Fold these 3 entries.
Entry 1:
Amino acid sequence: MNLTEITAIIAIVVSIAAIIFSVVTTYKLKNKDMDFDRRKFFVAILWDKLIAVRGINPTHVTDDLVMNVVNTLELVAICWENNIIDKNLILNSFGNSYCQRVKEIDGIIKGHHANYDNVINKIGMSGPDLLDYSEVIRPVCAQIRNKLDK
């Protein structure tokens, strides 16, 4: 092999290494951009909804409040399941609150409180029925609880 052939082989190897480095760097930057977009979505859209969700107090419960809480829980759960939001932000900011709201909704049962009975009559479903209807809220709550317990 002469010097020209050796130089050509070295140039090819360096070019391949540069291509691999470029692909890996692009992949890492794309993932960072996706993480940033998730955080931006969380802060821009979900933050306001989550801080507006109040706890459910049997003496001050309304059907609008219950539906607002359930809809917010479902939105978070759908975003969680589809990796639209940063799960660590949810865990750190609202993990316990999310699970507490699920527990409160689950406690809206006929006969437990007169206001609960009124809400159930207006909505047409008890709290457990609402959570079952959603299908994603309870599993996400279980995932959040598991992560918080670790």
Entry 2:
Amino acid sequence: MPPMPSNDGRPRLPWMPMLALAGLLCLSACTTEVVGKSDAYNELYVGNLDGRLAGRGTLELHAVRSRATCSGPWRAFPPTGPDLWDREGVFDLACSDRRRLRGRWVSLNRREAMATTQDQLRHNYTFRVSADPRRAGLHFQDYGRLQADKPPMPKLPATAIAQSPKANAKTSVEGRVVPRKRR
């Protein structure tokens, strides 16, 4: 579509193609805040989730006290829809301290979702996903107060991966853990 002339004779770009371009960029660039905590230890997590409108993307978390990082894919089901908040999904994170966090999230309302998971030693974790950074900050403050009197997160032993009954499993699209087939 050629540029439309303005009243002063200069070319003017139509706004619809520009809006479509912004939407396409947002599919890969729009991020959502994530905060979390270990239920038994004093560790807090902050991070973000990208690709919200596309229904799949990358989830990145940073542990505040141990400074471990966790990253991995997430996906929603059904994979398409108006927004993340009408759906459920799964995630699979590998952490720099050798923890593996696989879990499922569910929508709480039009702006937030919640996820729970366990690591190899069956330590429980809770995460909140929020489209509102202010709301995510409030969850982080609440989690900080809850974690204040808990002991520090223990180091993951090298044998923990072999001890895990879920280490040889994958999370299905429905969120169930299913064993992998042996070859």
Entry 3:
Amino acid sequence: MAFTDSQRSKIRTYLGYPDRFLSYSGNIENAIDFFGEDVSLQEEVEDILSDLEIIDTAIMSGRSVAGIKSAGQGDVEFYESGKISDLKRTGNWLINSLAIKMGISCARPYYGIDINIPPGFACGFI
């Protein structure tokens, strides 16, 4: 079993690597190939990718209502403060786990840098 082109692209994207100029990203391509050759390792990576997709969906749905959970007949209910920040923090944690598991450094933070951590952590989270 091997990763699909879509999965390979998602791994690159989450770890901050471009889908172009792959010859300059040899380490990540080698890691993707290695993990794609072992069913149990590939399943671990696929589980993380699945969780990250859920987080992406939750972030996008949260943004679309600008913090409003529901509104009607004069009542407005807002999402809990920091919900999107918490989702991003969890996403950064998962990406960091993926990077450690695959032995690859993050090139750029996918969810941005968490201001509560020291600079220099490319995944955005320790």
